[in-house]
C-alpha cells in the first residue's frame, strides 16, 4: 500500500480511505465532539498520508496504528487550537481541557482496541453488548462452549480496560507490524 | 498545509515521532523488551489475530499483552499478584494483574519490577515516590529503573493530563473509587485477609474459578439472574474479583453506541479530491470508473456495521423480465455474492481471476444461480456472515486498480454479458448502477436510509440507460413485445424521437430514437415526452415498479411512450 501511494496511484488512495476513514473519523470525533471538525481532521490526515507516504515506517508498527496516531495528534492539535482561538467565552478551563483530552485519549484508545481486537473477542462483545444476548446465547451464536464465551467476554473487557492504563503515546507501536 | 519543515501544524502534531527515538515515548525497547521476560505473566492467551494485515499491528501494546509489560508492576499490582499467586493459572492473561485495590494498606507492596513473580515477597508498602511531578508521565512509572531521559518540553498532550489528576503520590488510579456502591463490602470488611491467598478459593474451592470466569458476562449483564446473584455475593468477600468486576464494568462504559460510524458519503469524494489537489495522482482513476468506485464504497459503508442477523436478513430482488415484474428471494449476503459473481465477468475480461472459475456461465443470471446453488450458505445465510463482503470488495478494488493502470485503451474493451456485451467503460457504469440498486434493496430490507448517488454519477448512469434504450427497444420489437417501426429510417438520419426528461440533480434531457437504434435522435422529431424525477426513473429502470405505473408525466404518442417505458423497465435484470 505504501508503495502504491508513493507511486501516486489514485486507486490506492481510494482504498486507503475505504479502509481507514471510519477509524480516522471516529477517533477524531472522540476528541473534537464535532462532525465538522472530525471531517476536517479526516481530510488533513489523509492529505498528510497521501502527500507523505514515506513518513510511515513499517518497522514501527502497522499502517493502521500509524494512522490512528496521526489522527489522535491532529485532533488534539485542532482541539487545542480551537480552544485558543475562542479565548474568551465558551472556553474550557485548562484543567477541563486537559481532562477532556485525557478522556478523549482513553476513549480513542478504547475505540482502537475494539477495532483491532481479535475478531472472536469482538464478536462476543458485540453480541453481548449491542445485541443484548446473554453469554449462553452468544456461545450458541458463535458456535463455542459457554466456557469459551465467558472467557471471550472477560478477556475482551480486560483488553478494553487497558485503555485506562496508559496514554497512547507513552509507548510506541510494537515493532513487528507489517505493512498493509 | 505547507509541508514539512515550516511552522505547519503538522510539525508539532506529527514531526516528533521521527526524531524522538531517544524519548521515552518512542522507543519500543525502552522498557518493554527488558521487562517482558521478567514479567510474571506468561504469554497472553489471545486467539490468533485476524488475517487482515492492518490488524496485525496494535495500538501501543494494547493487544499483545504489552500493556502491563512495558511498565513494572506498581505497589498495588505487586500486592495483587501475591494475593493471586498460587491460584492464578500459568496461562492467565497479563490483564489479570492490573491494579487491584488492596483492602488493607499494610498487606504488602513491592517496588521491584520483577518481584511480582515471587509470591512470598512482602516488603513494606512504599508509595511510588514522585519527586518531579512535572516530568512524571504517570505515577506508575515511578519505580522504573530507567528514568525518562527527556522532559519533553513541548506538549505530550495525551499524557500531560495524566499527572494532573494524581498530584499526590497515591498510586491507586484516581477514577476508581475504593468502595464502589455496588460492591459494598469489598474493601472495608473482607472476611478473609487477602494475603492469605488461598482463602477465597479455599472457601469456595469449586466455584471461585467459575465465578471469576463469569465476571465479563456479569459486567455486560449477560448472565442469568442466579449467576448474577452468585457473582455479586462472591464479590462481597473476594477483593480481587471485586476489583476486576469494577474494572470490567468501567470497560463496558467504553463500549459506545453513540456516533455510529455513518460517515457522510460525500466526505469520501471531498477527501479524495482534497488529496489529489495537494498532490496530483500520477496514475489517475479513469473518469468512467469513478461512479463504480464511489457506489461500491457507499454500499460497503452500509455493510460495515451489520451484525450477523442483518447479513441473514431476507432480501427480495426484483426486476422486470420483459413481460412482468418478477423477483427472487435471497439474503443480504446473497445479494453481495450476486454482485461479486457478476463483477467477476468484468474481472475475467480484464484478465483478473474469475471468482466462478474458468468454466463459469456467461450471463449474470446463470452465474448468480450457479453461485447460490453451490454456495447455499451465501444465498440463505448459513455461511460465515459477511465473509463475502471481503471478496466482493477486494475484487472491486482490483477492478478499479486494473483499469487505472491499463490506461485509455481499455475503455472500449468488450465485456461479454452472455446475450449482450458492453464496452468496459459502460460495464463499470452498469456495475455502479447495480451497486446502487442492490444497496437500495438491502437498505430497504434492514430498514435503513440510503441516499441516491452523487449527481455526476447518477447522470452518467441515466445516460447509460438512455443509450441502451434503442437497442432494447429493437430487441423487444423482434420478440413481438413492442410495436413495429412506423417508418424505415436510413442509418444516421433523423427519425421519430422520444424526449426523456429526468428531473433532479442528476437529471437531464435525453432523446431516444424510436424506429431504429441506427437512426439519429432529433429533438425536432420528438413525437412524445416522458418526464419523471430521478427517483421515479430509478424505480422504473430497476424494475421495481410496473412500467405502466411509473410516476411520469406523459405527453404525445402513447404507443411510443408505452414502448419506451417497457423497454426502460426491461433494462433491469437479476
TrEMBL record, chain A:
GO molecular function terms attached to this record: DNA binding; sigma factor activity
Highest taxon above the source species: Bacteria
Domain RNA polymerase sigma factor 70 region 4 type, first and last residues per copy: 114-159
One Pfam family recorded for the sequence: Sigma70_r4_2
Entry keyword set: Sigma factor, Transcription, Transcription regulation
Membrane spanning residue stretches: none
InterPro entries: RNA_pol_sigma-70-like, RNA_pol_sigma-70_dom, RNA_pol_sigma70_r2, RNA_pol_sigma70_r4_t2, RNA_pol_sigma_r2, RNA_pol_sigma_r3/r4-like, WH-like_DNA-bd_sf
RNA polymerase sigma-70 region domain sequence ranges: 16-83
Coiled coil, from the record: none
GO biological process: DNA-templated transcription initiation
PANTHER family listed in its UniProt record: RNA POLYMERASE ECF-TYPE SIGMA FACTO (PTHR43133), RNA POLYMERASE SIGMA FACTOR SIGZ (PTHR43133:SF62)
Family stated for the protein in its record: Belongs to the sigma-70 factor family. ECF subfamily.
Designated name of the protein: RNA polymerase sigma factor, sigma-70 family
Organism: Streptomyces iranensis
UniProtKB/TrEMBL annotation, chain B:
Lineage, opening ranks: Bacteria, Bacillati, Actinomycetota, Actinomycetes, Kitasatosporales
Pfam families: zf-HC2 (PF13490)
Keywords for this protein: Transcription, Transcription regulation
Basic and acidic residues compositional bias, start-end: 163-173
Region (Disordered): 1-203
Organism listed in the record: Streptomyces iranensis
Protein name: Putative zinc-finger domain-containing protein
Ranges of compositional bias, category Pro residues: 40-50, 122-131, 142-154, 174-197
Keyword Plastid included in the entry's annotation: no
Cited InterPro entries: Anti_sigma_zinc_sf, DinB/YfiT-like, Znf_put
Domain (Putative zinc-finger): residue spans on this chain: 212-242
SUPFAM superfamilies referenced in this protein's UniProt entry, alphabetically: DinB/YfiT-like putative metalloenzymes
Amino acid at each position: 500500500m505504501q508503495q502504491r501511494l508513493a507511486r501516486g496511484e489514485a486507486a490506492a488512495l481510494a482504498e486507503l480511505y475505504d479502509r481507514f476513514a471510519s477509524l480516522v473519523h471516529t477517533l477524531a470525533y472522540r476528541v473534537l465532539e464535532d462532525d465538522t471538525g472530525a471531517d476536517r481532521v479526516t481530510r488533513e490526515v489523509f492529505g498528510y498520508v497521501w502527500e507523505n507516504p514515506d513518513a510511515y515506517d513499517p518497522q514501527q508498527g502497522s499502517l493502521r496504528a500509524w494512522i490512528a496516531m496521526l489522527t489522535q495528534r491532529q485532533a488534539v492539535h485542532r482541539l487545542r487550537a480551537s480552544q485558543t482561538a475562542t479565548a474568551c467565552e465558551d472556553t474550557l478551563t485548562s484543567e477541563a481541557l486537559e481532562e477532556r483530552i485525557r478522556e478523549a485519549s482513553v476513549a480513542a484508545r478504547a475505540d482502537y482496541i475494539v477495532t483491532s481486537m481479535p475478531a472472536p473477542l469482538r464478536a462476543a462483545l458485540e453480541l453481548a453488548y449491542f445485541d443484548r444476548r446473554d453469554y449462553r446465547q452468544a456461545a450458541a451464536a458463535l458456535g463455542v462452549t459457554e466456557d469459551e464465551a465467558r472467557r471471550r467476554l472477560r478477556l475482551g473487557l480486560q483488553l478494553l480496560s487497558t485503555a485506562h492504563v496508559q496514554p497512547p503515546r507513552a509507548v510506541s507501536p510494537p515493532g513487528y507490524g507489517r505493512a498493509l | 498545509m505547507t509541508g514539512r519543515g515550516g511552522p505547519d501544524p503538522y510539525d508539532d502534531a506529527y514531526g516528533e515521532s521521527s526524531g524522538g527515538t531517544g524519548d521515552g515515548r518512542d522507543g519500543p525497547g525502552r522498557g518493554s523488551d527488558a521487562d517482558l521476560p521478567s514479567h510474571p505473566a506468561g504469554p497472553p492467551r489471545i486467539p490468533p489475530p485476524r488475517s487482515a494485515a492492518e490488524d496485525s499491528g496494535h495500538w501501543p501494546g494494547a493487544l499483545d499483552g504489552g500493556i502491563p509489560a512495558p511498565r513494572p508492576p506498581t505497589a498495588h499490582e505487586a500486592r495483587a499478584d501475591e494475593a493471586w499467586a498460587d491460584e492464578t493459572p500459568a496461562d492467565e492473561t497479563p490483564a489479570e494483574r492490573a491494579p487491584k485495590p488492596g483492602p488493607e494498606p499494610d498487606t504488602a507492596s513491592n517496588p521491584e519490577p520483577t518481584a511480582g513473580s515471587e509470591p512470598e515477597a512482602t516488603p513494606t508498602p512504599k508509595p511510588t515516590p514522585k519527586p518531579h511531578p512535572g516530568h512524571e508521565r504517570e505515577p506508575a512509572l515511578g519505580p522504573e529503573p530507567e528514568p525518562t531521559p527527556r522532559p519533553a518540553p513541548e506538549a505530550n498532550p495525551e499524557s500531560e493530563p495524566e499527572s494532573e489528576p494524581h498530584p499526590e503520590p497515591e498510586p491507586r488510579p484516581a477514577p476508581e473509587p475504593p468502595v464502589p456502591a455496588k460492591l459494598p463490602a469489598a474493601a472495608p470488611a473482607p472476611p478473609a485477609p487477602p494475603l492469605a491467598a488461598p482463602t477465597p478459593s479455599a472457601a469456595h474451592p469449586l466455584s471461585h474459578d467459575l465465578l471469576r470466569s463469569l465476571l465479563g458476562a456479569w459486567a455486560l449483564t449477560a448472565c442469568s439472574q442466579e449467576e448474577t446473584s452468585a457473582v455479586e455475593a462472591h464479590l462481597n468477600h473476594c477483593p480481587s474479583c471485586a476489583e476486576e468486576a469494577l474494572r470490567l464494568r468501567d470497560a463496558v462504559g467504553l463500549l459506545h453506541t453513540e456516533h455510529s460510524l455513518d460517515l457522510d458519503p460525500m466526505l469520501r469524494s471531498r477527501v479524495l479530491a482534497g488529496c489529489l489537489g495537494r498532490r496530483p495522482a500520477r496514475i489517475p482513476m479513469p473518469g468512467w470508473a469513478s461512479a463504480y468506485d464511489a457506489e461500491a464504497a457507499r454500499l460497503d459503508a452500509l455493510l460495515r456495521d451489520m451484525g450477523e442477523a442483518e447479513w441473514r436478513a431476507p432480501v427480495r430482488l426484483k426486476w422486470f423480465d420483459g413481460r412482468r415484474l418478477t423477483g427472487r428471494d435471497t439474503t443480504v449476503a446473497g445479494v453481495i455474492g450476486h454482485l461479486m459473481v457478476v463483477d467477476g465477468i468484468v474481472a475475467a475480461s480484464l484478465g483478473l481471476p474469475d471468482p466462478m472459475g474458468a468454466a463459469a456461465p456467461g450471463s449474470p443470471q446463470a452465474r448468480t444461480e450457479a453461485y447460490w446453488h453451490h454456495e447455499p450458505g451465501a444465498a440463505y445465510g448459513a455461511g460465515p456472515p459477511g465473509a463475502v463482503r471481503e471478496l466482493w470488495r477486494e475484487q472491486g478494488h482490483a477492478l478499479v486498480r486494473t483499469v487505472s493502470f491499463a490506461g485509455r485503451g481499455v475503455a472500449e474493451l468488450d465485456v461479454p454479458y452472455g446475450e449482450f456485451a458492453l464496452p468496459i467503460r459502460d460495464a463499470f457504469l452498469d456495475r455502479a448502477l447495480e451497486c446502487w440498486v442492490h444497496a437500495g434493496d438491502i437498505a430497504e430490507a434492514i430498514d435503513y436510509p440510503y441516499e441516491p448517488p452523487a449527481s455526476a454519477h447518477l447522470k452518467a448512469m441515466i445516460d447509460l440507460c438512455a443509450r441502451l434504450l434503442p437497442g432494447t427497444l429493437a430487441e423487444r420489437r423482434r420478440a413481438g413485445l413492442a410495436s413495429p417501426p412506423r417508418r424505415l429510417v436510413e442509418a444516421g438520419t433523423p427519425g421519430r424521437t422520444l424526449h426523456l426528461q429526468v428531473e433532479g440533480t442528476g437529471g437531464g434531457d435525453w432523446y431516444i430514437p424510436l424506429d431504429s437504434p441506427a437512426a439519429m435522435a432529433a429533438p425536432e422529431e420528438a413525437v412524445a415526452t416522458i418526464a419523471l424525477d430521478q427517483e421515479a426513473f430509478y424505480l422504473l429502470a430497476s424494475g421495481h415498479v410496473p412500467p405502466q405505473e411509473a410516476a411520469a408525466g406523459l405527453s404525445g404518442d402513447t404507443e411510443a411512450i408505452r414502448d419506451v417505458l417497457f423497454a426502460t423497465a426491461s433494462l433491469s435484470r437479476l
